[in-house]
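How a chain folds remains the central question behind the approach discussed here. The record that follows shows the chain in one-letter code together with its fold in token form:
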Amino acid sequence: MRNYEVTFIVDPVLSGDEIKSTAQTYSDLIKNEDCKIVHSDHMGLRQLAYPINKRSSGIYYSYEFETPNGDVIPKLELAFRRDERIMRFLTCKLDKYGVKYNDDKRKGLIGKKKSKSDDSKKEEIPAVKDDLTKIEGIGPKISEALAKGVITSYVGLASKTVAEIKAVLDEAEGNFGAHDPSTWGRQARLAADGKWDELKILQDELDGGKPAAGTSEEE
């Protein structure tokens, strides 16, 4: 058996369901080629070392798997290249030392334990913050409520499903549960891409951030 590890970055402006579906596509592809996934890791939203397609962050996934002959690799990499949802990918062949390293790391055997003094010295990386009040339907108080739910950027807002946004509003202090966030993700995607003219056109068609009467908005 041969061992490989593939890491790929999914476009963060996709909805939560679309991101999960993208990851599942490649999990299924690997399994359908008689491979065994040893470990999967959803690392979540991370800052990129440099901008890619005007994005400053991406959703990271990693799969470690076993394959009888390696024939899956060309198929997997071709699928990545053709998939517009994938921003970058990296495939690595693991020798026995790489396999052992990953296994030890998962067991917590790699790296020294951090002391409390080490943690106190570590500087926190500030979260990306955008002016969410530029999204029609979001005022200062709702923006504060979203921030408490760790939604502080256009990319972060665009990556959430309508249900996830509603859950944050329901948990916040204040009467925010009655607000309709069905267009917020679409608006946020345009803002994240810097498409302000298109955003203005969309907002002209909205009624207080909600779809105008006679129209519908799907996420």
In short: The chain has nine helices and six strands.
